[in-house]
Specification:
Structural class: alpha+beta
Distance between the termini: 50 Å
Order of helices and strands: HEHEEEEEEEEHE
Number of helices: 3
Radius of gyration: 17 Å
Largest sheet: 8 strands, antiparallel, barrel
Strand content: 35-45%
Shape: globular
Number of domains: 1
Number of strands: 10
CATH architecture: Beta Barrel
Strand order of the largest sheet: 2-3-4-5-6-7-8-9
Bound molecules: 2-acetamido-2-deoxy-beta-D-glucopyranose
C-alpha cells in the first residue's frame, strides 16, 4: 500500500509538472463514432486544438495513418521543433475488438503499455475528434484530446461543435490549447 501511495505521489508530481490533464476518479466513457470506417480515416490529419501533452514540444503537429498488410495501422506523428528540425515517431494502431471499430490502441514503444485512441467523431474528410484516457489504480486518470483536421485549418463552428461534444463526454475543455499550424511548409 505504501508503494502505491509513493507511486501515486510520483505520478501526480509528474502529471502536474507536465501540465497534463490529471483528474481523480475513473476515465469517462464517451460515445464514439458510429459505424467507424478506418479505411476512410487513413491519411494525414493536422492538429487544430489539444489538451496539453508533454510529449509534443513543437508546432505543426500532424499524424499520418496508413494501412499495414496485417490489418493494423502504421502511425507516424511529426512536428516541427523550434530549431527547425523535424521530430517524428512511428507506432502501430490496432482495433482490439472488431465490434468496436472506433476504439483503437496505439503503441509507440515495445514493452510499454498501449494507449487508447478513441475516435469520438469524424466525417473523414474535414474533422476528427480523438480522446485518450488511462486509469491508474481506479484512483485517478490522465487524459488527452485532439481536434484534428484534413487541412491545417478548421472552420470555427466545427471546432465549437467538437468542443461541445468533448465537454459532454466529461472533459474539461477550458484546458484546450490552440495548435500553431503556421510556417509548416517544410513538413508538407
Ligand atoms: C469503408 O470505406 C472504404 C473506402 O471508402 C469502402 O471501400 C468500404 O466499403 C467501407 N467499408 C464499409 C464496411 O462500409
Ligand atoms: C467486444 O465488444 C462487444 C460490444 O461492445 C462486447 O459485447 C464484447 O464483450 C467485446 N469482446 C471482447 C473480447 O471484449
Amino acid at each position: 500500500m505504501k508503494e502505491i501511495q509513493v507511486l501515486f505521489v510520483l505520478l501526480l508530481a509528474a502529471a502536474t509538472a507536465h501540465s497534463q490533464s490529471f483528474h481523480s476518479g475513473k476515465c469517462p466513457k464517451p460515445s464514439v463514432q458510429e459505424d467507424f470506417n478506418i479505411t476512410k480515416y487513413m491519411g494525414t490529419w493536422y492538429e487544430i486544438e489539444k489538451l496539453p501533452a508533454a510529449f509534443e514540444k513543437g508546432k505543426c503537429n500532424q499524424a499520418t495513418y496508413s494501412p499495414l498488410a496485417d490489418g493494423t495501422v502504421k502511425v507516424r506523428n511529426a512536428e516541427l521543433l523550434s530549431n527547425g528540425k523535424i521530430n517524428s515517431i512511428e507506432g502501430v494502431a490496432k482495433v482490439k475488438n472488431s465490434s468496436q471499430p472506433a476504439i483503437l490502441s496505439v503503441s509507440f514503444f515495445k514493452g510499454l503499455p498501449d494507449s487508447p485512441y478513441l475516435v469520438l467523431s469524424t466525417d473523414y474528410q474535414s474533422y476528427a475528434l480523438v480522446y485518450s484516457c488511462s486509469d491508474y489504480f481506479g484512483l485517478f486518470h490522465i487524459d488527452f484530446a485532439w481536434i484534428l483536421a484534413r487541412p491545417r485549418v478548421l472552420a470555427e463552428d466545427v471546432v465549437g461543435r467538437l468542443r461541445v461534444k468533448l465537454a459532454a463526454a466529461g472533459v474539461n475543455i477550458n484546458r484546450l490549447t490552440v495548435s500553431d499550424q503556421t510556417g509548416c511548409d517544410i513538413l508538407s
